[in-house]
Amino acid sequence: MTDAAELRSLTGKLLADHPPADTDRTAFLKARFDAGLAWVHYPAGLGGLDAPRSLQAVVDAELSAAGAPDNDPRRIGIGLGMAAPTILRFGTREQKERFLRPLWVGEEVWCQLFSEPGAGSDLAALATRAVREDGSGDWIVNGQKVWTSSAHLARWAILIARTDPDLPKHEGISYFLCDMTDPGVEVRPLRQITGEAEFNEVFLTDVRIPDAHRLGAVGEGWKVARTTLMNERVSIGGARIPREGGMIGPIARTWRERPGLRTHDLHQRLVTLWVEAEVARLTGERLRQQLVAGQPGPEGSGMKLAFARLNQEISGLEVELLGDEGLLYSDWTMRRPELVDFTGRDAGYRYLRSKGNSIEGGTSEVLLNIVAERVLGLPSEPRNDKDVAWKDLSR
Questions:
Q1: How far apart are CA 134 and CA 346, in angstroms?
Q2: For 282, which of 80, 145, 271, 387 is 20 to 30 Å away at the CA?
Q3: How does strand 139-145 pair with strand 156-162?
Q4: Annotated catalytic sites, by residue?
């Protein structure tokens, strides 16, 4: 299925059989998935048609013009951008059939249980343990995870845990799909500088995970996790946005609508950042085209770096442009939002929220190393703990 005309025909049939105005939203999304029009590059039977990724835009345009509902991708971004491609690559047929449809439709929200209080930038140093129970073969998990977006909403989580402390840190990790409603899973809010608690800390106490919910082989969790992390950086830094989308949009509108705020110096700085934002946007388009033929590479780390730096510089300039008004903050109310919104609300929110962009999805310092070593081919940093058993590392 590689022809745009055939995809338009299939989309037209979907709309005829399930008119958006007369069809329940969830029912329409399920029908779209079953028709292979959810993500056309996925295999047939799993929401796709084995078609080129580039043809997804054909389907999306037809559905948008007809007023069809989408699956609210901002609400389920972790599932779409991180869990789904990892399950597709490493999951069993049973896992793919069980999880991909409710994930895409939005019936089941996902979160990511990776970072820990002692394993953030050095994620492979994680200490959460998964011990296999004799007899049942289930895994008993104990530990703490932190900075978990949407854990308060999630039904499922992608989880990495240490299954063999006698091996070096990268080798003794396994990857699991964790039911967030199971006994022993406790979610606590983490209030941020913005006043919101979109992040959480998650405590795992004797959580039982069946071996059927292990993704990939035992001890190969780091290999699986790298796929997740590369997709995460692409989804954060390489999201499709229109010209003047993202952080540059609000400050550009303010500049045009309020000429009294302008100065020559601010103009020069704004033009520079506008050009850089447009370069980043077009680079993101190129990256997405490269993904058509395969898996994401380390280029996503470069996009994530640019995303964080630009957001912080643009939001800082916006606060400066607004003067005293830029120091105002609309609402410090503690709430646990359903969406991770990098650009919402007012200038003060954008300024504060952007501070997290250089931490989440991989710190900028770690990503600089990835770009240096895997993109530019520079010598690797010395790693004295590479061949040392995790249990023997100083912590």
A1: 55
A2: 80
A3: unpaired
A4: 232
Rama region for 67: left / alpha / beta (φ>0; ψ in -120 to 50; rest) = left
- Give the position of tokens 């954060």: 236
- C-alpha–C-alpha distance, residues 395 and 387, integer Å: 16
Choose among 304, 244, 234, 305: nearest CA to 275. 244
**CB proximity list for 359: less than 8 A, separation 6 or greater:** 120, 147
Nearest by Cα to 35 from 3, 8, 54, 64 = 8
| Rounded Cα–Cα distance for residues 213 and 101 (Å) | 16
pLDDT for res 1: 53
Chain position carrying tokens 């997740």: 228
Report residue 164 as tokens: 């063999």
If one compares 288 and 35, the residue with the highest pLDDT of the two is 35
Q: Which residue in this structure is represented by tokens 């820990």?
A: 116
pLDDT above 90: residue 180: yes
CA 180, CA 188: separation in Å to the nearest integer?
Answer: 13
Nearest to 144 by CA among 127, 163, 164: 127
The candidate with the shortest Cα–Cα distance to 249, out of 274, 281, 286, is 274
Q: Rounded to two decimals, what is the model's pTM?
A: 0.90
Total number of residues shown for the chain: 395
Which tokens go with 45? 């039977």
Kind of pairing, strands 156-162 and 173-179? antiparallel
